[in-house]
Amino acid sequence: MNARLIAMIMLMCFASMLSVNALATDKPHKKMTLAEKGEQARIESAELEQTQLQKARDAASATAEREQKVLAKQEANDWEAQQLEKAKAQSEQRLTREQKYLQQAQEAAAQTRKIPQETSDPAQSEQ
Q1: What is the pLDDT of residues 90-101, one digit of tens each?
Q2: Which residues, if any, are the signal sequence (predicted)?
Q3: Which pTM value belongs to this model?
């Protein structure tokens, strides 16, 4: 009994598909004239062009966003470079100052110093 029921359902489905197909083929297809085909092609071309333009705009905005990210990273690196430059300048100033102090010390050491002599004899003052 189940097999008959399944067979009947399949037969009905098959019949309904044939009837739908027959109705679809009964409608005559309107043949388009050359002018209508040209107009339809122009419309499709315009739609395609708009789609491509939108894709290009989206790609351009994505590229601009990536460029901004790269520039932001470069600016951060510029800050690091500035800090390195400051550190180098301070180091050079420190070295210059040390060299100046060293030179002053060498000049002072090179000078002859006169030790004041006491008028009294040092041997006598110890007594």
Answers
A1: 999 999 999 999
A2: 1-24
A3: 0.36
